[in-house]
Amino acid sequence: MLTRIDHVLTEDELARLTRMFATVAPVAGRSTAHGLAAEVKHNQQLPPEHAEVQDGVRLVLEALKRNALFHHSAFPRRAFAPMFSRYEAGMSYGEHVDNAILLTPAQMRTDVAVTLFLSEPDSYDGGELVINTGHEERQVKLPAGSLVTYPPYFLHRVAPVTRGVRLAAVTWVESLVRDPAQRHLLQQMDRAMGSLHARHGESSELHALNNSYHTLMRMWAET
Hints:
Elements: E1 3-5, H1 11-23, E2 27-28, H2 36-40, E3 41-42, E4 44-45, H3 51-65, H4 68-74, E5 76-79, E6 83-88, E7 92-96, E8 101-102, E9 108-109, E10 112-117, E11 124-126, E12 129-132, E13 137-140, E14 147-150, E15 155-158, E16 161-175, H5 180-200, H6 204-220
Antiparallel strand pairs: 1-14, 2-4, 3-7, 4-6, 5-16, 6-16, 7-15, 8-9, 10-14, 10-16, 11-16, 12-13, 12-15
Helix pairs in contact: 1-3, 5-6
C-alpha cells in the first residue's frame, strides 16, 4: 500500500521550491499539528499565508495533477494544500497517525498521505520517513522530486536529522475510492493492463480486463 513515484517535479520546479525555502522564514511546525501529533512534532514549516508559499502550493498541486501514476494509485477527488516542512540537525517528528478529517479550508477525509521529498538524500543524514505497516517498518528516503503515498492511519515518524537539512512537502488526498484494499486492487489491474498491452497489443482479454476495471470503478467510486 506504499507507492513510490519518481520524477514528479521538473528540475526547474525543484529549483523554484528550493529558492522558496531560502527566502521565506519558517515557523514552528507544531503550530499546524493537533492532539497527540503536536507533542511529538519538532520541525519547521513555511507559513501558508506567504505569497511565495502559495505559489509553491499551486506548483506542487499542478505537478500531482499531471502525473498519471499518481492518479492511477491515489484516485484523487481533491487534495489538501501541501505543507512545506524543514528539518535541520536535531529535529524530528515522533510516531503518530494523521487526522482522519481536515477541517480547513473545507472538511475533507484523509484517505492517502503524500510525502514529496525536496532534498537529495546524500545532503542530509537521518530524516528517513519510517512507516509501520503493521507487519514491518519501512524506511523511505527518496531523491528530490520523488514522492511516496501511504495510508494515513499507519503509524509513521520522521527519524532525527543528524546532518544537513531535510526539505519536504506533505499533503493528503481524499480519494474517489475510499477503501485502500480496493485502490490497491485497481492499481494492480491498471499495471497488469499496461504490461499486457506493451507485450501483446490489443486483445479480447485486455478489453475484458479493462471492462472489469471500469465496472469496479463504477461500483466503488464516490463522486
